[in-house]
Design a protein that fits this description.
2 copies of one chain form a homodimer. Chain A has 441 residues and is of the alpha/beta class. The first copy, chain A, folds into 2 domains: 9-37 and 327-440, Alpha-Beta Complex (Aspartate Aminotransferase, domain 1); 67-322, Type I PLP-dependent aspartate aminotransferase-like (Major domain) (Aspartate Aminotransferase, domain 2). Chain A contains 15 helices and 14 strands. The first copy, chain A, has helices at 9-19, 38-48, 52-59, 68-91, 103-113, 124-136, 151-159, 176-188, 214-226, 228-231, 291-302, 308-320, 322-348, 379-386, 420-440; strands spanning 24-25, 119-122, 142-147, 163-170, 173-174, 195-201, 236-240, 266-271, 283-286, 354-356, 363-367, 389-390, 392-393, 410-414. Chain A has an 8-stranded mixed beta sheet, with helices on both faces. A 4-stranded antiparallel beta sheet of chain A has the order 10-11-14-13, with no helix packed on it. In chain A, helix 2 (38-48) crosses helix 12 (308-320), helix 4 packs antiparallel against helix 5 and helix 8 runs parallel beside helix 9. At the A-B interface, helix 1, helix 2, helix 3, helix 6 and helix 7 of A face helix 1, helix 2, helix 3, helix 6 and helix 7 of B.
């Protein structure tokens, strides 16, 4: 049996969260429960199903790539995000940000950059990550990832017999010198031909909360391009923008799609689930050829198309403004919850523990002194669990990569699903655990 | 790029059906449009979303294996189907049917045979077929299939670098002697260790409409078991029961799960989509360990769980009786449409053309004289398309298998989505094409 797929950590974390009622989970990437748009979804579904004509369309099979109207709307939505982000970053005074192409130039290239024909609707953006990896990589291939990165994606790589190489992160994205060093080293060892892509969680990265600056996106694409000749094939950038619309501070950054001349190398993965309702899983990808066609065929084999009912729900929420209003509401909500968590961290966590304050997304990334392990078998983790509080051990987010020791002194804590009270209480419990152990150690 | 996945025939067939308004498609496996339960789905969704408590559950992530209530309901549903089928086949007078285990014996084993803990909810049963194949088979492995079989499944095998070996079909399922011959021949060539499973569309098979008798299921499992020792591992039966509830004549046959001692080798794939609404894709599988766990982990990587909104819709339709009433309505509807197609075939098709009359499902399988090709490049297919009628060429349903010539004189025609008028008109057009070409030839 080809069963090399291990238990994904997220499964038992989710299960632990759902099956232990007294546990406060700061681990699961669930979204905020009380702000789920129940009335809005009901309204939208009643509109979808209001007549046989509209309703039958939602209850019948569609085509594999997705509903044409939704693909059009999604392409426009994405174009609008990028266009607004480009405008705001152009007018920004930050001299560190390399300029995206100007608005006038962008206008000419827009039609090419966001064609609905290369837009694929998927069951959450997770499915796009999986299928893109399936399309691009053969067993034994290497995928470059942020170090640390989204642990479910590491599970995908492991289950497909792929290797990950981690590239160090700093506050505004990958360390470019390290990326170049990794590519050089792979080249020297004759392994560059196994490198098919770089996976980048570019907005409020899971787990660290880092957002990749536009300048870094451009520099990354330039670097990858330089190594294509020795690699003998394209090296793609898979940009996972799942958290992009959950920004509650600062300004949006244009996607890698807007980097001039890069459209043929960027695979953009987005989603309507996290910013609306995670129980209605609709994600999407904009992919260059020939990747689009390959992934579409794989989608045909997996499930020949995402449930039309969910797609029509998305069409309805996008066109009615329900979606936009919900995103705005969520942004406020998460801003508040992030603030609650920050205050709790400041109040309850002992000195010597650091965190990056996120501008969006669902996570704080907390760094303990290096000597203190947070791993699944560590005293911190076990004591926390005994005190009914759960976090994601940082070590789970690091690829198996023999070129460096896997850090295990970090934790991902989420303000996504926990209530304000639970955030305060969870951080209080965790702080007590840490204080004891750090004092002892 | 690992892009060996070819364009699945279903993609372009579906696309042709949706993009050419004058075309009468007897090809696509779409379901009947006018009987789609629009009002019923609206009612059920309003119930799901009637309050924050129930609604939030539907709009939030769930756990990977599926909603516990739905898994419980699904296990009971399946158990009920099998229990009723066993009762009716026990009281049947047909001496050809080997007896399933008696009702009293079944009672003792029921709890073990249908455990919700091994029930996995998927995005349509298609996803279960894909993930099971991913879990069980490594590149180069061999899957035994009916000859002909479901062409999308052949696409899955092709895309995963697997080989198919076809086993001839007769009116009540596989030719057992041929199955044994194929296994013997694989054994002689030392290839038995590459055989991981047999894929069987056991109810109203796609494309032929054949239903596998219970006696054959038992005999097949017995045969597979005999070859496990030389194979060195279990050989599983993947029973695809997607069409099972679309029976409109005759009596249901117990699933392979009811064959005594076979529970550890049977993977049962079912669906709520085809019998209710194909736009709300909810399928399921009952799998033995260790396959269940392996497939669940793969599901975690693909999409970490089927959309909760669709699952809660299924819970609501199952418990309210909406589902059962819709299935009964659909059975009547398809009985009628199958009758319309049969009458049209009798009226418009020339002599020398044969078909099996189905007792359920969506398809007629039509056999032309062997000299007449129906393939994608054939005169028949091209002329039919020119006359705005589309069918599935039989050759697409045959595996690439060097041990026999691929038949290409058959066609699959569906009464699923076409209206009664279109069925009559489509068959009339097809009949005219065939009459001309057969007379000429």
């Amino acid at each position: 049996m080809g069963q090399r797929t291990l238990e994904p950590p997220i499964s038992w974390l989710m299960h632990a969260a759902l099956s232990r009622p007294k546990l406060i989970s700061l681990a699961a990437g669930f979204t905020d429960n009380v702000s789920l748009p129940v009335a809005e979804a009901r309204l939208a579904l009643n509109r979808v199903l209001r007549s046989p004509r509209t309703g039958r369309k939602a209850l019948q099979y569609g085509i594999t790539a997705g509903d044409p109207t939704l693909r059009q709307l999604t392409a426009e939505h994405l174009q609008k995000l990028d266009s607004q982000a480009s405008a705001s970053s152009s007018s920004s005074s930050s001299s560190l940000v390399l300029e995206p192409k100007s608005r006038t130039r962008m206008k000419d290239e827009d039609e090419k950059a966001y064609p609905p024909e290369r837009l694929l609707i998927t069951s959450g953006s997770q499915q796009l990550l999986y299928m893109t990896t399936e399309a691009l990589c053969d067993e034994g291939d290497i995928v470059l990832v942020e170090d640390p990165t989204y642990f479910v994606y590491l599970g995908i790589l492991q289950s497909r017999g792929l290797r990950a190489r981690g590239v160090r992160l700093e506050r505004d994205g990958l360390e470019l010198a390290h990326l170049e060093g990794v590519l050089q080293s792979l080249k020297r060892r004759g392994e560059l031909r196994r490198v098919k892509m770089l996976y980048l969680v570019s907005y409020f990265q899971n787990p660290t909360g880092t957002t990749t600056s536009f300048g870094k996106k451009r520099a990354i694409l330039k670097l990858l391009k330089q190594f294509e000749r020795p690699a003998g094939h394209p090296i793609y950038l898979l940009e996972d923008a799942a958290y992009r619309e959950l920004r509650f501070a600062g300004q949006d950054v244009p996607s890698a799609l807007t980097v001039r001349g890069a459209a043929s190398r960027v695979i953009y993965a987005g989603t309507f689930s996290k910013p609306f309702a995670t129980g209605a899983r609709v994600g999407y990808g904009l992919l260059p050829e020939p990747v689009f066609t390959a992934v579409k065929h794989i989608k045909g084999n997996h499930d020949f198309g995402t449930a039309n009912l969910l797609q029509q729900l998305s069409v309805q929420t996008l066109t009615s403004g329900i979606y936009g209003r919900q995103v705005a509401r969520l942004q406020k909500r998460y801003a508040h919850k992030a603030h609650v968590m920050k205050q709790a961290l400041e109040k309850h966590f002992p000195a010597g523990i650091e965190w990056w304050e996120p501008e969006g997304g669902l996570y704080f990334w907390v760094r303990l002194p290096r000597a203190i392990s947070t791993g699944v078998k560590s005293k911190v983790f076990r004591t926390a669990l005994k005190n009914d509080v759960l976090y994601v051990p940082g070590e789970l987010c690091y690829a198996d990569d023999a070129t460096r020791r896997k850090p295990d002194h970090e934790m991902r804590i989420s303000f996504g699903s926990a209530s304000e009270d639970d955030i305060r209480e969870g951080i209080r419990r965790l702080g007590r655990v840490l204080r004891k152990l750090i004092t002892k150690g």
